Amino acid sequence: MSEPSLAYPLPHTRDGANGSLVQRPGPANEEETLFLRHHLVNWLFTPLYLLLLFSTVTGYIAALKLSNQPYDLVLSERARLMASRFDLVPDDAAPRAADLLPDGAGHLTFTLFDANERPLLGNANLPRPRPHDLAVDGPRLRSTTLGGEKVRLLTLRFHTSRRTPGAEYALVMAEPVKDRLFLGRSILGNIVIPQFIFILIAGLAVWIGLKRGFEPLERLCGAVAKRRSDDLSPLDEAMAPGEVRPLIREVNALIERLKAMMEQQKRFVANAAHQLRTPFAGLRAQAELAKRETASPAVKTAMEGICAGAGRCSRLVNQLLTLARNDPGARNDEAMSDLNLYRIAQETAMNWVPEAVKKDIDLGFEGAKTELPLCGDEGALHDLIDNLLDNAIRYTPSGGHITLCTGDDCGVWLSVEDSGPGIPALERSRVFNRFYRVSGSGQPGSGLGLAIVDEVAQRHGATVAIGDAEGGGAVFIIRFPPQSSKDAGFP
Amino acid sequence: MRILIVEDDEVLSDSLIRAMAAAGYATDHVADGEQALAMLLDGCYDLAILDLSLPRLDGLMVLRQLRAAKKSLPVIVLTARDSVNDRVLGLDFGADDYLTKPFSLVELEARVRALLRRGQGGGAATLVCGSLEFDSVGRRVTLAGEPAELSARELAVLETLLFRQGKVVSKEQLIESLCAWGEEVTPNAIEVYMHRLRKKLEPGGVDIRTVRGLGYMMDKV
After folding, report:
1. Beta carbons of B16 and A284 less than 8 angstroms apart
2. How far is B188 from chain A (nearest CA, A)?
3. Which is nearest to A452 in space by CA: A310, A314, A324, A305?
4. Beta carbons of B102 and A365 less than 8 Å apart
5. Do the strands A119-122 and A109-114 form a parallel or antiparallel pair, or are they unpaired?
6. Do A364 and B211 touch (CB under 8 A)?
7. Which one of A69, A401, A424, A459 has the minimum C-beta count within 10 Å?
8. Could you say which residues from 395 to 424 on chain A have a Cβ atom under 8 Å away from some Cβ of chain B?
9. Which residues contact B78 (CB under 8 A, 6 or more apart)?
10. Would you call A220 exposed, middle or buried from its count of C-beta atoms within 10 A (0-12, 13-18, 19+)?
11. Which residues of A touch B19 (CB under 8 A)?
12. Distance between CA atoms of A164 and A167, rounded to whole angstroms?
């Protein structure tokens, strides 16, 4: 026979409502890395930009101040020049405003006030000097607005020496700040553009630095994400940057503790199973003896019940032991070797024939190829097939048939098809749960058989699918992943 | 016939003692390994039933030292472990048979009988299946008391099946059992022998079961 009936999808995931053979979602490391990166970016860039903003503002203020200085000097010189020109004008001659203005100072406006603060002369009506501006010798400068225009206003108190010696005058001069602003802005431009380029370079450097810095962490995350769920080997410390090593060490210590705990649990289950067998053996033997020695049919029946109970208990213990052996935490790679699935399936099927014959069930084996190379744990694979066949024999009525098939297309597979009642689609995802039993089946059973099948399959990276057999009944298909040429050391 | 039971579980050893006594054997019991070894080395037991997990001296060590002292009495090992490795280990250490706990008393009694008989040099010379009797020494077959005419190859096939009564025998195993004849035997030839055998055994109500894809089986009656 080729592939078993294709009336159902041949999924690589378990068939059923919430069957989950789907790859577990990767660890949340990635998100956390991004989170950490955001933190770093926020904490690096925010202060960096604030500092740059601050330096730009202070630079601008400094630029304005610096650009004011030469202009103020020139303005003060011109004011002094005008004062001395005014002093040179003879007493009787009336000075003209144009005579006082130095060359190239046409853009300046001025008003000359006498000691009584009366405007004496000038080319504009400038405000009277404020008293505190006159309180000192030498020019006083301030910025203000005159008629809607920003100006630099100079006040100079001076005394004439030749013309009316000792007379006091006040010169008020205004210069539009347009030119100064132009200078300030060009200085600012010279600051801001390099600053901006600096920000870009700093940003790029930070970005590259972060990327570089996170590379080892990302490699580590990748390595952790790629791990098998049951891989409990310690993480490689050398992969991590120094700061993360303590964390890795802690994680490794945790893994170590977890491993020890699992090991302990596995030993406990194994020991418990072994220890339980002897009392069961005693119970069963005593019941058998009592059955022989009694004449009462009622006692005989009771003793038979005890024998059967002891048998079921010990079967349960065996199954618990098998589960403990195949538990992901108890994975034992040394048990893995190159096998021939055909041979294992054939051997196991042979062992079950007497049991099937007892129930008048036709148990058969069909294998297209006689060599099906597989790297696996022989004992566990025996357990898997044992439990599938045991299950099939339990649920198949007398006169029915069960067929174990093996084959190979893109990986070896085996299937067990029976003529029992089948498994309702809704129950298919649940039958693999430990201690779950199909409702209304009325069959004695532990509900562990298919859990064992599932665990062994998972250990081998195989998928389990349940389908409908032709003419009712169930088909279980175990599909093993294709063996890489490296692994397939089978001759 | 004297049997030593080495088992430290009281309930189990009590039932073993009673069962063996009921079967007519003289029975002694010890609960620890050292004492068991001493008694087996000194005493003249015909058979020992030996538990593997014992206080003071492990069952496997008892077995090894017993065999090292050239004591060849048959030993049935009782084990609470079912892994193939443990069984192989037990047999390698010189056990003649093993039973995994819990076992049925009937099974234990049958094994004890078989080992004691073998110890006396008398193997089961006659294989029986329903009305069929096969004398493996004289190589004669009787069906319901009447001698049946079988060819040598048919006899070889039947013998293989009877030796593994109640178990499936594959075509390859049957071919192997015929290889001694120094001829190539094809799977098709096996089918021919099987067909003839069935025809000859049919009058006695003896059937050879075909197991799909696996081989043939004679039911244990």
Report:
1. no
2. 18
3. A324
4. no
5. antiparallel
6. yes
7. A69
8. 403
9. A281, B7, B49, B50, B51, B52, B98, B99, B101, B103
10. buried
11. 285, 288-289
12. 6
- Rounded CA-CA distance A326/A332 in Å is 8
Q: What is the ipTM of this complex?
A: 0.71
Contacts of residue B52 in chain A, CB cutoff 8 Å? none
Name the stretches of chain B with pLDDT < 50: none
From the list B18, B83, B214, the residue facing A379 with the nearest CB is: B83
Q: Measure Cα distances from B199 to A463, B166, B208 in Å.
A: 46, 20, 10
For each of the domains in chain A, give its residue range(s) and CATH number, in order of start: 37-228 (no CATH), 245-325 (1.10.287.130), 334-488 (3.30.565.10)
Q: Is the pLDDT of residue A335 over 90?
A: no
B contacts of A403 (beta carbons < 8 Å) = 212
Q: If we measure between CA atoms, which residue out of B3, B90, B166, B84 comes closest to residue A352? A: B166
Please give the pLDDT value at position A490: 41
Across the interface, do A278 and B104 touch by the CB < 8 Å criterion?
Answer: no
Sheet holding A362-367, edge to edge: A362-367, A401-408, A412-418, A474-479, A463-468
The pTM for the full model equals 0.59
Of the ranges A9-13, A275-279, B194-198, which one carries the lowest mean pLDDT score? A9-13
8 A C-beta contact, residue B155 and residue B148:
no
The CA R_g of chain A, rounded to the nearest whole Å, is 49
SS (H, E, C) A223-278: HHHHCCCCCCCCCCHHHCCCCCHHHHHHHHHHHHHHHHHHHHHHHHHHHHHHHHHH
B218 interface with A at CB cutoff 8 Å? no
Nearest CA in chain A to B20: A289
CB under 8 Å to B217, separation ≥6 — which residues? Answer: A353, A354, A357, B161, B166, B167, B168, B169, B208, B209, B211
A411: left (phi over 0), alpha (psi -120 to 50) or beta: left
Residue corresponding to tokens 């089961």: B124
Residues in chain A: 491
Please, is A432 exposed, middle or buried when counting C-beta atoms within 10 Å of its C-beta (0-12, 13-18, 19+)? buried
The rounded distance, in Å, linking the Cα atoms of A22 and B51 is 46
Backbone angles phi and psi of B214, in degrees to 5: -120, -40
pLDDT-derived band at A9 (thresholds 50, 70, 90) equals: very low
- Please tell me the distance in Å from B217's CA to the nearest CA on chain A: 9
Residue B69 confidence (pLDDT): 86
Chain A residue numbers with beta carbons less than 8 Å from the beta carbon of B215 are: 350
Question: Number of H helices and number of E strands within chain A?
Answer: 9, 12
d(CA A240, CA A220): 7
CA distance linking residue B175 with residue A457, whole number of Å: 35
Is B132:B141 a contact under the CB 8 Å cutoff?
Answer: yes
Predicted local distance difference test score (pLDDT) of residue A125: 80
Distance CA(A170)–CA(B57), nearest Å, equals 125
Cβ proximity of A59 and A53 under 8 Å = no
3-state secondary structure of B215: strand
User: What are the beta bridge partners of residue A159?
Assistant: A168
| Start-end of H helices in A111-227 | 131-134, 178-226
Both tokens of B199, joined, read 């025809």
Residue A481: cis peptide before it, omega within 30 degrees of 0:
no
Report the pLDDT averaged over residues A252-273: 83
């090593």: which residue's tokens? A245
